Amino acid sequence: MTEQTTELGSLGYQGPALGIFARLAEVQPTLPDAYLVFSGSEVMVQLDSVPEVEAWREALHVAPQDVVLNKGASRTYLEFFTRVSGVAVHAYTTVDIAQPEQEGAAA
Question: Which of 10, 28, 32, 80 is in the most buried spot, having the most CB atoms within 10 Å?
Fold first, then answer.
């Protein structure tokens, strides 16, 4: 029997990540759906709202203090990073942060 190797950049390389999320769907069937991007051994989980980030945080056993508000150049993100069975997971949503009105600004 010949041994097959899994190369970086192949679907087989993504197998562990795909398997983890298939299992997560089985054990957490009510978890909010997400836009998932599998890239090698990393998964990005794009969510629609803050409550969805919270649901995923709880499901993946991430501590509340590990969720951060990150202000980018054009967007602000509520996000966390974790590892699940060796697979890197980045879950996030965009949030609207109300800008305080400046004194003297026209209404």
Answer: 80
Return the CATH number at 60.
3.30.460
What's the helix, strand, coil split of the chain in %, to 5?
Answer: 25, 30, 45
| pTM score | 0.80
What is the per-residue pLDDT across 26-46, written as a single tens digit (0 to 9) for each?
Answer: 999 999 999 999 987 789 999
Single-letter code of the amino acid located at 23: R
Please report where in the chains the tokens 């980030």 appear, as a residue: 53
pLDDT digit string, tens, across residues 50-73: 999 999 999 999 999 999 999 988
Give the bridge partners for 66, in sequence order.
none
Instruction: Say which residues have a Cβ less than 8 Å from residue 90's Cβ, sequence separation at least 6.
Output: 42, 43, 44, 45, 79, 80, 81
User: Structurally, how many domains does the chain consist of?
Assistant: 1
Copy the structure tokens of residue 52. Answer: 């969805």
